[in-house]
């Protein structure tokens, strides 16, 4: 960044939402409730899958990492959003904006690759049940989880550093409720063709590599399920994939609505409302989906809750 611009652009203004008065307070309450539900629900999954030895399996190890990703993702966006709604403090420092953007890129990338890893886990469990323990051993799961977390690091650091070293020429209003790449890029007063091209390539790789793995995994799962002679066996095999499939559909459909539509097809405020679907709603729904669609999690949750209640009623 040029020295003159560096001294001028020391902070940004997040435009937030076009709500005022009671509507703004109502919206704040709704977002706050969903935020707390996200933290509690995902924390509960982490605690249950960590404490219960029965859930020490590859699927739940990856699910635990997904829950942690959702918590980190929510914490990087929602607290500032709530501040904007409650006290209308729309100022965010230059460094905080850069940090928020890099965290968003990191955690979204991590979630994409974790969903791909979870699809592969289900494929191995259904298509190669006799070799499942060998193929999805502890080291393999650890490498898949660490790889998912690290996949977004070079992308997040590289593009954030590049973007925030471009000249802004005094422009400092981010037309969003958080620092995302597109609204920040709109403030840049320089040629961004190369940056946009590389961002497009990175997004295609981040989205398509896991999505291809998911698609191939489910095609193989479907082929394996169709070989099962009994309808009961087919339903039982598919039931183990139901929660993951719902989460994948929810994640890709909401993110796709926000980023793959033509730029002029939605108003600014409508784009922000669509962005809420994958920044606030999806992280809240994921633990609910896994608890509702997964019998093992429901049983362990009831057992865990029951044992805690008995402890408080009869501590001796």
TrEMBL record:
It is a multi-pass membrane protein. Its main location: membrane. CDD domains: 7tmA_OR10A-like. Keywords: Cell membrane, Membrane, Olfaction, Sensory transduction, Transducer, Transmembrane, Transmembrane helix. Pfam families: 7tm_4. Residues 41-290 form the G-protein coupled receptors family 1 profile domain. One of its GO terms (cellular component) is plasma membrane. It comes from the Eukaryota. It is found in: Cell membrane. The chain crosses the membrane at residues 25-48, 60-79, 91-120, 141-164, 197-216, 237-255, 275-293. InterPro entries: GPCR_Rhodpsn, GPCR_Rhodpsn_7TM, Olfact_rcpt. GO terms for molecular function: G protein-coupled receptor activity; olfactory receptor activity. PANTHER family: OLFACTORY RECEPTOR (PTHR26453). This is O10A7 protein. It comes from Formicarius rufipectus. The gene is Or10a7_1.
